[in-house]
Hints:
The complex is a heterodimer. Chain A is an alpha+beta fold. Chain A is built from five helices and nine strands; from the N terminus they run H-H-H-E-E-E-E-E-E-E-H-E-H-E.
Amino acid sequence: AAAAEPRCPSCPAGPERWLLEEVAKKQLLEKLRLRDRPRLAHAVPRAAVTRALRRLQAGGARRSPGGTGDEEEEEQSYEIISFAETDLTSPPTLGLQFHFSQAQDQDLRILQARLWLYLRVPRSSLTLRIFLAAQSGAGAGGNLTLLGERRLSTTGSGWRSFPLLPALQGFFSGQSRSLRLELESRGDGSDVAAQLNASWSHQPFLVAKVKVREPGHRVAKR
Amino acid sequence: SLRCSQNSNLCCRKDFYVDFRDIGWNDWIIKPEGYQINYCVGQCPLHVAGSPGMASSFHTAVFNLVKANSGRASGHSCCVPTRRRPLSVLYFDRNSNIVKTDIPDMIVDACGCS
Lengths: 222, 114
């Protein structure tokens, strides 16, 4: 069969190709600060990925040209989209659980954090409050810190984003990598929690932009 | 910068592309679909050491010319990357979060003699 295929004269074959593939794997894992290739805990619906990336893209478009990234090229930055696991353990509030995977020893500086929710607002008298709950170990019922409150004045269905900084800065500089938010809606009687919990195709997600703070300072070799 | 060809052993850039499907990484790397892992290979005889456009820095060029003129055989010039560019990666981490980052200096664009 090999004889039948037209050989690519400049393509390495056999051991050289295997070696280069191994080098590529090692380089990528090292630069992404990963010990091994990630094994996905659960598949994410492709539609949810596409929708979230579209938000990420739109968010990037809004960034002022030459934003902070340009000045601090030294630190590697990450944009992270984390899909929420929802639970209704303490109605009428809705629990949103996020799991991050950075290594414990990394010191992260968070630049942006926004929560995206797909809401149906029939009347313009709905107020939504977002709380930061104690460590996920405590689950529902731990003490709550108010991150933000907004009166939703426009009716209709669609994605809305809610800034989570600066209150969330403390979370990323701590050791925990599991974040729990709780949503509480007041107003026109529509149950936002049940609404969000039910719509798997419009899963709430969090977009964060973080920089890894390097230990010590880096010296450029010349 | 020279791209490697059959009929020259001078310092050049050798192109090699790893398709993530070939190594079974396309389930967690969303974009790109592969990695252009070029590398530099080839000879750097003294008469091309530090040639304009092939040196990694003006200082190195001057230094090599001094060496070449002094007739000393010691020291040599290496075939190294002279221009690189970042690689943007979009991938799933083990918690199925989507992560996007730019890895600096990941793709070798040009090679030259130091």
